[in-house]
């Protein structure tokens, strides 16, 4: 089954970004960082999501992100689907921290259950076909609104939203230009998808 081995973020200062992600979320192997000054403006068309077990863990991770220099886009709050908040890292990447639970079941931890790449696309159905043709298996699909692919043993789960819906979900305007500033590493190989997201060849073995 096709898998995603890594996500590489293009940032102005990889050392500073690494300090932020370690302090904010305890991430050290889940993402890669690469120096780049590629021009970008507005919404980059994607967000990264951390799924956790309960609201207290959401609050803890949002708090450490803000303490490390992130900007709040959406304060953590209860919604129809659970509890979550959205922050923007100093390098500009948008992060959603959420849980399907609405009540705590124990003390807060820093455990991350799922690492999800949310891509905002122009046509969910067309992008779904594109990725299925490259070996990704669909786990859940809600028409032209949302698609989630099977992660299997991959450390990164992929999901598709309509671009405007994703922008609304994370609390930003949908317009943006320039580089996405992200590269997806996986065994499908090197290509660029219909919305301009670049993939490169990478395996789970080399990602560790």
Task: Record the SSE blueprint.
Blueprint: E1 4-11, H1 14-25, E2 31-35, E3 40-42, E4 46-51, H2 55-67, E5 71-79, E6 82-88, E7 94-99, E8 114-121, H3 124-133, E9 138-142, E10 146-149, E11 157-162, H4 163-170, E12 176-178, E13 182-186, E14 191-192, E15 198-201, H5 204-207
Parallel strand pairs: 1-2, 4-7, 8-11, 13-15
Antiparallel strand pairs: 1-13, 3-12, 4-8, 5-6, 6-7, 9-10, 10-11, 14-15
**Assembly state:** single chain
Helix content: 10-25%
Mean pLDDT: 94
- Give, in spatial order, the strands making up the sheet with the most strands: 5-6-7-4-8-11-10-9
Q: What CATH architecture label applies?
A: Roll
The SSE string, one letter per element, is EHEEEHEEEEHEEEHEEEEH
CATH top-level class: Alpha Beta
What's a quick, concise take on this entry?
This protein is α/β, with parallel strands linked by helices and 208 residues long. 23% of the residues lie in helices and 39% in strands.
């Amino acid at each position: 089954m096709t898998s995603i081995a890594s996500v590489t973020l293009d940032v102005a200062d990889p050392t500073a970004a690494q300090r932020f992600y370690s302090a904010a979320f305890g991430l050290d192997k889940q993402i890669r960082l690469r120096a780049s000054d590629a021009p970008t403006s507005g919404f980059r068309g994607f967000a990264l999501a951390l799924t956790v077990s309960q609201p207290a863990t959401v609050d803890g991770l949002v708090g450490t992100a803000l303490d490390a220099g992130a900007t709040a886009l959406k304060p953590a709050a209860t919604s129809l689907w659970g509890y979550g908040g959205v922050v923007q890292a100093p390098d500009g990447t948008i992060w959603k921290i959420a849980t399907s639970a609405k009540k705590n079941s124990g003390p807060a931890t820093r455990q991350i259950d799922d690492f999800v790449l949310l891509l905002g696309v122009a046509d969910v159905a067309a992008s779904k076909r594109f990725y299925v043709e490259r070996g990704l298996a669909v786990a859940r699909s809600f028409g032209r609104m949302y698609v989630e692919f099977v992660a299997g043993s991959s450390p990164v789960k992929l999901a598709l939203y309509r671009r405007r819906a994703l922008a609304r979900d994370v609390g930003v305007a949908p317009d943006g230009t320039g580089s996405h500033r992200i590269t997806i590493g996986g065994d499908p190989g090197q290509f660029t998808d219909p919305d301009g997201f670049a993939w490169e060849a990478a395996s789970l073995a080399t990602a560790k």
